[in-house]
């Protein structure tokens, strides 16, 4: 599949990915020491939901658009940083804007923190430069994201996160994600890693997690969200591997995952998984 960000901005997959990202960034804020956030497949940074690509699919209406009605208080507390990041991005760039991961990361950077945004597509990388290279806290790199993953860790701060969110244009990239995560953790064991994947055939994810479990000596979480019944012919869900998760993330996920599964379900089917593996399992 080709999961180029512009066509899917604000969809159900972005909701899960960006909610988890903001929970991790909130955790990193708990300490005053600087951190670095690396986005290996950054896209354009933010998107106009009325633009050609996002408008062509209309997927935001079934994702971010379904969050207008408040959730119960405990879930809203967890969503608050995510909602605030979207609101801040819209204040900067317009009410029809939805943030990609770089825009969300930027909103969380303090004066001593750094954000590194990597993008291989030449035109997209140039757009990223125009949008972020004037900010001293952020740096844009025109580079293959998989190459960047190995080259940019461990960061000088020795504290932070890596988001790996490839477009899945080639067969075998879910397996590649697992192998890349295992290799990265061996190089920087204490970093927080978020590896995103689409779900069509869930058995592909099961195999990757099983192999990664055998290779990891660090704690990890598998967070899956399904919005329609499993069907290997179409995208019906997505998930994240979180390595070295914040200590309360699993507890938080058991609040927000069922709420999202119910709210974002395409028909009457919504499902989720929160599963610990790695060194803790």
Characteristic terms for this protein:
alpha/beta; SAM-dependent_MTases_sf; eight-stranded mixed beta sheet; 10 strands; 20% strand; S-adenosyl-L-methionine; globular; two-stranded antiparallel ribbon; 281 residues; Rossmann fold; 42% helix
Give a verbal description of the structure:
- Keywords: Methyltransferase, RNA-binding, rRNA processing, S-adenosyl-L-methionine, Transferase.
- Monomer.
- The active site is at residue 165.
- This protein has 281 residues and is of the alpha/beta class.
- It has one domain (5-278): 3-Layer(aba) Sandwich (Rossmann fold), CATH 3.40.50.
- Helix content is 42%, strand content 20%.
- It has ten helices and ten strands.
- The strands form two sheets. It has an eight-stranded mixed beta sheet with strand order 5-4-1-6-7-9-8-10, sandwiched between helices. Strands 2-3 form a two-stranded antiparallel sheet.
- Helix 6 links the parallel strand 4 and strand 5 (138-142).
- Helix 2 crosses helix 4, helix 2 packs parallel to helix 5 and helix 4 crosses helix 5 (101-108).
- The radius of gyration is 17 Å and the shape is globular.
């Amino acid at each position: 599949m080709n999961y180029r960000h512009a066509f899917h901005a604000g969809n159900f997959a972005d909701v899960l990915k960006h909610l988890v990202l903001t929970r991790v960034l909130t955790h990193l804020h708990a300490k005053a020491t600087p951190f670095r956030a690396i986005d290996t497949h950054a896209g354009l940074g933010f998107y106009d939901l009325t633009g050609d690509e996002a408008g062509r699919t209309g997927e935001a209406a079934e994702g971010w658009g379904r969050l207008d009605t408040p959730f119960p208080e405990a879930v809203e507390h967890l969503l608050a940083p995510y909602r605030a990041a979207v609101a801040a991005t819209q204040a900067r760039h317009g009410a029809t804007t939805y943030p990609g991961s770089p825009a969300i990361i930027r909103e969380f950077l303090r004066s001593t923190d750094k954000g590194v945004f990597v993008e291989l597509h030449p035109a997209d990388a140039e757009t990223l430069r125009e949008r972020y290279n004037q900010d001293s806290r952020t740096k844009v790199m025109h580079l293959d994201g998989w190459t960047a993953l190995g080259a940019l860790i461990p960061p000088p701060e020795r504290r932070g996160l890596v988001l790996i969110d490839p477009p899945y244009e080639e067969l075998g990239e879910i397996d590649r994600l697992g192998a890349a995560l295992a290799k990265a953790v061996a190089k920087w064991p204490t970093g927080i890693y978020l590896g995103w994947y689409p779900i069509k055939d869930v058995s592909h994810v099961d195999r990757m997690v099983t192999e990664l479990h055998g290779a990891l000596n660090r704690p990890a979480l598998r967070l899956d969200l399904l919005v329609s019944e499993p069907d290997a012919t179409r995208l019906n869900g997505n998930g994240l591997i979180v390595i070295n998760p914040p200590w309360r993330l699993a507890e938080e996920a058991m609040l927000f995952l069922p709420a999202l599964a119910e709210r974002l379900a395409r028909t009457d089917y919504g499902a989720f998984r929160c599963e610990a593996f790695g060194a803790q399992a």
